[in-house]
Design brief:
heterodimer; A: 14 helices; 72% helix; elongated
Chain lengths: 305, 319
């Protein structure tokens, strides 16, 4: 019954308490689940580091310093230096920005392309809906990484192409999520009520139905964020990511591969940074799903009974 | 009944094959530059003789409307003609088949190892729900999902090849040449594939087993006095194995991406390695061929899983 008790406690706030501020609400939300707390803090850390950027480091991002080539981690260079003497930590910090930006763009693009397809398909129904569904099924049978690889390799890497390549195979997930959401919500009474009030279909869709299906979408976005970061790093590792002015963890690991025996830290630290951020998104996504997905909650309570 | 189901399922494949081939066909169009030069692999200002150019132009049928081009291309693809490789100068399908065997060892071996690890582990995690064993299993799942494959592969190389020196870090030996060397070379890449797949299988195995444990038939089995071991490991496991089959089948698409990365890290000469090499040499015929090949593999495996499913559970046929 533990999970239930925790959930109930956050719902029934004492009436005497003053209306809480937004920050207090966020803290209460994060505190309601250990996973949310740990993952959330980790995520905030990554975002802050990404926003502040490499300027907090005393070392230059790109200038080679041949006097300190390939140095192991030390008190001056916490995570060591690379083959031309650049500080690894500084470059990892710079890499977080690229990683988060590319992933954010890809995830948003998947949502923006998938959502209308799902919404209009299900609203119109009939042949168009069936057609959209078949196309989505087709896209889903592609290996996501291979498709992204082919797209980037053929079109050449640019930020927008990278977004699209990573987003493409996620489009069906959003289309289907929104389609099933709209189909179930369409029959609900509040939609009937809105229709009786004379609201336009578009308005009903955006103002009434959408807020009611936000929870599963938020979960999917979080989990897709983790996936997008992983795909971006993989593409960069394979030499198909963003090139020189951008610094990607995947590229750093690729460059480090030749020095695995003499300078393993070059491969280990960017990898740990990568694992940290993916882990954070995954556990936050999982925790959100357990919390928000009514289906999951039911199966959880059934299990507890 | 089964035949009818299989035929129906096959008919449903037609739109899917159309969509998939269309996507691949149009992806090839986004390559910047003259499509004839692109198809000849002459993208970086290389010279091509007039005859070769015209022959390729004719073969692509670029003077015809797009839909005709697509249909011509599709009919060739469906007959197994994926074009002629630019770098190898032989049929792309042949090039792919030559590299298929090492990939199959990796895929099938990885899947088998994954199932051997994940099914018992998933069952144990479910039976001992909310104990430290369960948490350990969940931790493994979360890590397995979060650690990027290429980095995991590098770490295994670092540990087992660089530090311990037990296994070679890269390369491949054919089993018919030297079986021990073959095992040594495939051990690391196969472990990486297996760990990745095992995480997903374990996750679903555990979840499904947990749900099955509360079904009515379990209560009935217990009520008639079967031992707990018999109930769980025979009745429940048999039912939840359906999920495992589905999950493994659905992993096929993921697996294709996985082996591409793994083969690249370990310089393992399979079709994933071929794909990356072809991207590097800009042999777009082979790139296209490998992508198509992988997608068809995914579709076929999913079809087989569906049919297998109805063999296991006759109720599905009647729905």
């Amino acid at each position: 019954m533990e999970a239930r008790a925790g959930y109930d406690a956050s719902v029934f706030q004492p009436l005497t308490e003053r209306p809480s501020s937004v920050t207090r609400k966020i803290i209460a939300f994060l505190g309601s689940d250990q996973r949310l707390m740990v993952g959330g803090i980790l995520l905030i850390l990554y975002v802050v580091i990404g926003l502040v950027g490499p300027s907090i480091s005393p070392y230059d991002l790109n200038a080679p310093d041949l006097a300190v080539r390939m140095q192991a981690p030390s008190s001056t260079h916490w995570l060591g230096t690379d083959r031309i003497g650049r500080d690894v930590l500084t470059r990892i910090i710079a890499g977080s920005r690229v990683s988060l930006q590319v992933a954010a763009g890809a995830v948003l693009m998947a949502l923006l392309l998938g959502a209308p397809l799902g919404a209009f398909g299900s609203y119109i129904g009939g042949t168009i809906d069936a057609l959209v569904q078949r196309v989505m099924e087709g896209i889903m049978s592609f290996p996501a990484l291979v498709l992204a690889l082919a797209l980037v390799a053929l079109a050449g890497p640019s930020v927008i192409m990278l977004w699209f390549a990573i987003a493409f195979s996620s489009i069906p997930r959003y289309a289907r999520l929104i389609r099933s959401g709209v189909l179930t919500q369409k029959e609900r009474e509040y939609v009937d009520a809105a229709r009786a009030l004379g609201q336009s279909p578009m308005r009903i869709l955006v103002k009434q139905i959408l807020p009611n299906i936000m929870a599963p979408i938020a979960v999917q976005l979080t989990l897709d964020f983790a996936r997008a970061i992983s795909v971006e790093a993989s593409l960069s590792y394979l030499g198909l990511g963003l090139s020189v002015p951008y610094i990607s963890w995947g590229t750093m690991i690729r460059d480090a591969q030749d020095f695995l025996e003499v300078a393993p830290w070059l491969a280990i630290f960017p990898g740990l940074a990568l694992v940290g951020v993916i882990l954070a998104f995954t556990i936050v996504g999982d925790a959100l799903r357990d919390r928000m997905d009514p289906r999951m909650r039911r199966s959880l309570s059934r299990r507890l009974v | 009944m089964l035949m009818r189901y299989a035929t129906m399922r096959l008919a449903q494949l037609i739109p899917m094959v159309l969509v998939v081939t269309m996507v691949v066909f149009f992806i090839m169009m986004i390559v910047p530059g003259d499509p004839v030069m692109v198809m000849l692999g002459a993208v970086d200002g290389a010279q091509v003789s007039r005859e070769v150019y015209d022959a390729m132009r004719l073969q692509l049928g670029l003077d015809k409307p797009l839909i005709v081009q697509y249909l011509n291309w599709l009919s060739k693809v469906l007959q197994g003609d994926l074009g002629t490789s630019i770098t190898f100068r032989t049929s792309a399908l042949e090039v792919i088949f030559l590299r298929l065997v090492p990939t199959m060892y990796l895929m099938i071996g990885g899947l088998i190892v994954a199932v051997i690890i994940a099914v018992p582990a998933g069952v144990l995690a479910a039976i001992h729900n909310n104990t430290k064993w369960d948490h350990l299993a969940t931790g493994f799942v979360v890590l397995g999902i979060s650690v990027p494959t290429f980095w995991l592969a590098l770490v295994t190389i670092l540990i087992f090849a660089v530090y311990l020196g037990w296994l070679p870090s890269i390369g491949y030996t054919r089993p018919q040449d030297d079986f021990i060397e073959f095992l040594k070379h495939i051990a690391l890449p196969m472990s990486v594939v297996a760990l990745n797949i095992a995480a997903t299988v374990l996750r679903f195995q555990r979840q499904d087993f947990l749900e099955q444990m509360h079904q009515d038939y379990v209560r009935t089995a217990r009520a008639k006095g079967l031992s707990e071991r018999l109930v769980l490991w025979k009745h429940v496991l048999r039912n939840s194995l359906m999920t495992t089959v589905t999950v493994v089948g659905l992993q096929m698409a993921y697996l294709s991406g996985l082996i591409t990365i793994v083969e690249s890290v370990f310089n393992y000469p399979g079709i994933g390695y071929l794909l990356l090499n072809s991207i590097r040499t800009r042999d777009f015929i082979v790139v296209q061929g490998v992508v198509l090949f992988m997608v068809f593999l995914v579709i076929i495996v999913n079809l087989l899983v569906d049919i297998f499913y109805t063999v296991l559970d006759p109720r599905i046929r009647y729905q």
